[in-house]
């Protein structure tokens, strides 16, 4: 395994978690040398402040980490993880009163603070961090499975398109299926036309790396869940070519696929009692004489026709065929995840994962779960009055309505047309990228919405 907790039977040093308002109480019970040392170091308990406590011969005897105030902690998450790379190497345990939620967040954050993407060069951060003993009362195996799934998502997103095209994404997909004894298949190239996936083929046909649909099944009993992840391994924008400033991060345009694969790993590792299906349309939106064109009219798997008014709105096209396939089995829940629109980023920024759902109970359960596991999500509306915006008149649907307003909503409405029961459909319009370093989340690829959905599954699959 990539991550591990410290041996619970081995000796460990305490990391005391102290709020600003409780500092005097803590100092009153400290041994005098430690109390004097903390005062000499100017330790105030402000959020993120760390002070290692020396023993008589200078060796570390423990450490104190400032937890600040409740209002300060609201401005971020995984605060305790900031201590992990700054502590001396060795085994540590958390000392202080933690709720189960706080203990789980601290443990997961600590593990994720050890994530490194060093495929192409040695990382300039420590290769190892201090090890943490799993706090009492947490499900350590579950936390480890979540960390492993998140690391898979990050690795896939961080890998550039030169090494993460449709072939390589298929390899990762099949490796995951093999690891969990799942059934998997791939439909590639011209076979997409023969098996009625015309939109996936149209988007990916311009690339020498053949488009494909990846299909995985796992589990024999329980409610049925189908995850659909956008796998656009690189997006030039097609003939509506993106400017360079917008193309720079397009290796992450398969972030939806990476996220559902990470979530699938969590589900299968934990052996949850569900019937899981994972669908990934894997393509590269490239430019050639064979590119699909603006104002082409394409027929989808479902039979709906689509006028292409922007070849850079390709994600919803490949998802449409995959959603139509998913819907043919009428699973209990279909979830799509995609780095779909810049409009979502304008609306909620990079840190929130907006989602769409027509079922109030499911939406509420998901929102609560996001808060519970520090994976923030935000409900957006399937706003029916905007339906005419995606109806061009010449075809059933418009893939890129003019005007630029409500872009994330109109994209979600477009996708909703390809499922028969919108109350059993969830759509995430994620960013999949951490713009700058934060505790447990280094700059780069990141999963969004997966942990919230995992936590909410007992409720949303009712």
Automatic annotation (TrEMBL):
UniProt GO cellular component terms: cytoplasm
SUPFAM superfamilies: Macro domain-like, Zn-dependent exopeptidases
Record-annotated Cytosol aminopeptidase domain positions: 310-317
Keywords in alphabetical order: Aminopeptidase, Hydrolase, Manganese, Protease
Gene Ontology BP annotations: proteolysis
InterPro entries reported in the protein's UniProt record: Leucine_aapep/pepB (IPR011356), Macro_dom-like (IPR043472), Peptidase_M17_C (IPR000819), Peptidase_M17_N_1 (IPR048816)
Pfam families in alphabetical order: Peptidase_M17, Peptidase_M17_N_1
Molecular function as annotated in GO: manganese ion binding; metalloaminopeptidase activity
Family in the record: Belongs to the peptidase M17 family.
Protein name: Leucyl aminopeptidase
Organism this protein belongs to: Albidovulum inexpectatum
